Design the sequence.
């Protein structure tokens, strides 16, 4: 999975948004730019465990309480979650493939929360394609929502 490489790549992706000139030439810095980093196995085999890595990145300019919703694909069973810098609620019987994770306080500008490692077992047959989705949100307006959703496709061989 290469979490160190993923982390290095996530930190290098994108630059914080530039403040735009507001009324009377003052900087308008309301909000923040959160990004979800989400990676996983390219392939797996039926009955095997595999995982996903989740990171939340705040490019700034404001601090934010960040939350992520992870939707695991059909054909998988949740096994466990291990996290650093976030707290997570495991799936419930009512929503067996949905996890919610978030920062326990504000995520400072130019900082990262995670990694959170999510382990699942595949129940899908060979030839299947599994798509997981992670979406980040916060208590602040996001100035760049284009990087708030990420999907990972895993092929069952």
Sequence:
């Amino acid at each position: 999975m290469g979490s160190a490489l993923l982390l290095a790549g996530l930190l290098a992706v994108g630059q914080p948004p530039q403040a735009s000139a507001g009324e009377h030439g003052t900087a308008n810095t309301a909000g923040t730019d959160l990004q979800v980093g989400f990676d996983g196995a390219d392939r797996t085999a039926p009955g095997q465990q595999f995982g996903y890595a989740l990171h939340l990145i705040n490019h700034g300019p404001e601090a934010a309480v960040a939350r992520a919703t992870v939707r695991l694909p059909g054909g998988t069973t949740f096994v466990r979650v291990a996290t650093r810098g976030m707290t997570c609620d495991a799936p419930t019987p009512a929503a067996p493939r949905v996890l919610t994770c978030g920062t326990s306080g504000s995520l400072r500008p130019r900082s990262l929360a995670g990694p959170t490692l999510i382990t699942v077992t595949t129940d899908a047959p060979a030839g299947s394609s599994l798509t997981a989705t992670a979406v980040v949100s916060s208590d602040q307006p996001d100035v760049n929502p284009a990087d708030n959703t990420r999907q990972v496709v895993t092929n069952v061989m």
Observations:
- The first strand starts at residue 20 and ends at 21.
- The helical segments are 3-12.
- DSSP finds one helix and twelve strands in the chain.
